[in-house]
């Protein structure tokens, strides 16, 4: 009987979010501001004072700062699934700008979907779903 040779490339596992691993979904954040508009003052303050700290805390994310004269400040997040999210920053204080950048960092980039009635759990594999309880069986579970 011939043995089948297993190549190293066949033993590779594909990364996925799960119990022991977390893959960040955001890949790039672009901060756009105007040098002259007063509505960009807090965004400019955040960029000059706090952005370097946030970038050091998130080395997996590329941070880009663009100057757009005559436009309101925005934060745009680009995600690994090809989508992007845009958040306007003109009404926020400096800590509010940081919270919105953190919201982009924590977001998955997926489109927000309504939960359908009776379909709460979605999975890629077939499995029995639900909470098991020893009280819901004919003979009670004894320890």
From TrEMBL:
> Where this protein primarily resides, as one coarse class?
mitochondrion
The UniProt entry, under SUPFAM superfamilies, shows: Thioredoxin-like
- Is-annotated flag, keyword Hydrolase? no
Domain named Ribosomal protein/NADH dehydrogenase is located at: 35-108
GO molecular function, a single term: structural constituent of ribosome
Which Gene Ontology terms of cellular component type are present? mitochondrial large ribosomal subunit
Q: Would the keyword Metal-binding be found if you checked this record's keyword annotation?
A: no
Q: What is the organism lineage in this UniProt record?
A: Eukaryota, Fungi, Dikarya, Basidiomycota, Agaricomycotina
Name listed for the protein in its UniProt record? Large ribosomal subunit protein mL43
Keywords from the UniProt entry = Mitochondrion, Ribonucleoprotein, Ribosomal protein
Localization, UniProt: Mitochondrion
Return one Gene Ontology term, BP aspect.
mitochondrial translation
Pfam families linked to this entry:
L51_S25_CI-B8
Which protein family is it in? Belongs to the mitochondrion-specific ribosomal protein mL43 family.
| Native source organism of the sequence | Suillus fuscotomentosus
